[in-house]
Amino acid sequence: MTNVGVVGAGVMGTGVAQDLAHHGHRVVLVDNNADALDEALAKIELDCRMSRMLGGPAIDAEAVLAQITVGTSLDLLAETEVVIENITENWDLKSALYKQMDVACKADTVFVANTSAIPITKIGALTSRPDKVMGVHFMNPVPMKTACEFIPGYHTSEQTKDTVRALLDSIGKKAIPVNDASGFVSNRVLMLTVNEAAFLVHEGVADAKTVDEVFRSCFGHPMGPLETADLIGVDTILYSVEVLYEQFNDSKYRPCPLLKKMTDAGLHGRKSGKGFYTYQSMG
Amino acid sequence: MSNDARTEIRTFITTKFPDVTFSDEEDIFALGFVNSLFAMELVMFIEKAFGTRIPNEELHLGNFRSVALMADLVARQTSAAVG
């Protein structure tokens, strides 16, 4: 059992906290928004109840929730051995957070960046412990996914890799090593696909349902790119494409204006009840 | 009660999928227009609309495959609450 801090109670942080707690780890879930923490606990309870129905194991929601402590202060991370960061894909926010985490945590605490596109080496440079910083790109929904990208930064030590690999093993995640570059492997391809699918809707070539139907029926994909966008979060897609654009300075990563408009309008996908499709909200 | 429940559940589904036709007895998952993630929406809808909390042992896809099965589930929960 490891004491793990999870920072950021959005879609990914909530899933990571749930998965760790389900596998017996003690979890401290921290977010600067108390409402987000309440929503996270409600989501974890619902997901545990729904697990068997979605093809997973029967999970005791109360036992999982008992493993999780929540709070708004980074001071709660003082006793953690590993901290997994899952905040918004925004460099200014991450930059401020890692400097604070560096002070709030023990010197030997390992930091794991669960980022979609920001290079790990750049994140490590924010701290006094670049050898103890590495990237893990979890997939959504975290408890149902059995693999993740495993991304050491330039200075990441072998000991840090071993610690993180052991933690991933303990929650049944296969770690697929890839080298450090913006977007890694998965999002370098996926984000451009979703962005281009959004352009098709934006330009009136096809509506969202039709775009997804092509991927489902012609390619045999279980979900189309715009259903996937709603699952990941339309805002997260936009921020990831923006990071790729900033990192590579290549116009092929230009964000679709429709993603910007939807993000500004609060149409963030499943988590907000409406994105490219409309959903029954949790509220 | 059961007929009212059928109507409400059917309305919820057809609002989401207005182009699809199906009977109350047909397996909506087998018809292919919904996936298992929609099952979660169905649970949330039923708990909210009928003011019930579905117990863990009733949370399996078999109870959500058709409008009729969902209405039966609602009836069981309602009678359990009354009884």
From TrEMBL, chain B:
Taxonomic superkingdom: Bacteria
InterPro entries found in the cross-reference section: ACP-like_sf, PP-bd_ACP
Pfam families in UniProt: PP-binding
Domain Carrier: 1-78
Coiled coil: none
Name of the protein in question: Carrier domain-containing protein
Native source organism of the sequence: Lentzea cavernae
Lineage, broadest ranks: Bacteria, Bacillati, Actinomycetota, Actinomycetes, Pseudonocardiales
